[in-house]
Amino acid sequence: MRCKLNIHSVGNKMLLVAGLLVLGAFTIPVNHVNIYLAGDSTMADKEVKAYPETGWGMPFHAFFDSTVTVINKAKNGRSTKSFIAQGLWKSITANLKEGDYVFIQFGHNDEVPTKATYTPEADFSANLVKFINETRDKKATPILITPVARRKFDRNNNVQETHEIYAAIVRKVAIEQNIALIDLDKESQELLQKFGPENSKLLYNHLLPGENPNYPDGKTDDTHFNELGARKMAQIVLNDIKQLHLALADRIVKGVNAATVNPQAK
Length: 266
Hints:
It is built from eight helices and seven strands. By secondary structure, it is an alpha/beta fold. It has a five-stranded parallel β-sheet with strand order 2-1-3-4-5, with helices on both faces. The longest helix has 19 residues, at 7-25. The N and C termini lie far apart (65 Å).
């Protein structure tokens, strides 16, 4: 028997294929976005001579897909005041475009009265509002972050607050300006408590004499992180991006989740 060719069936299939090709040609590409990081040494990129000291902004970029570029403008020793005065903030706003994000984390250097970078409380609040408004003016999204915790425990092995006043200002501004907040101060304290007084040293730049050529005499630093600590802090921020349901969450590389933040997670 000879099979009869169903002209209508073939024609319908060809139309279907043609339609799919047309739809593919008009698929709207995902817009590329930049994430700008504005902050201090706990967030900043480090020179090789400082390793293993690592800012949490360094591993942060690896969590996102190819549609995201992380631009780390954080610098050692900066406060909101010096970040503005030295033109670092302007270097962000000059390039900021609609759809971008700015993650803002200050407090470490603003809060110390003996430093030249000291920023009185009212000025600190005003500077944060300036950052928010100028980011919004560019139709970009500002995210406030409380200053990440220093490693400090009391005699009962309870982690201590080290940014009480300035972290509270960040929280207050976030509420008043109706802006997303990542409470890294609180969440990093919780992480330190889980690690405990001794194991938490594994997150910071603690080195014995002769352990690293960059620090031949050793180092005891309870403010700045090593590579592990920086990654843990970056993961906290990453998890909060998801919890806040930011559109940016859709651009996170699949497989990265909150469980990696908790050292006791199974």
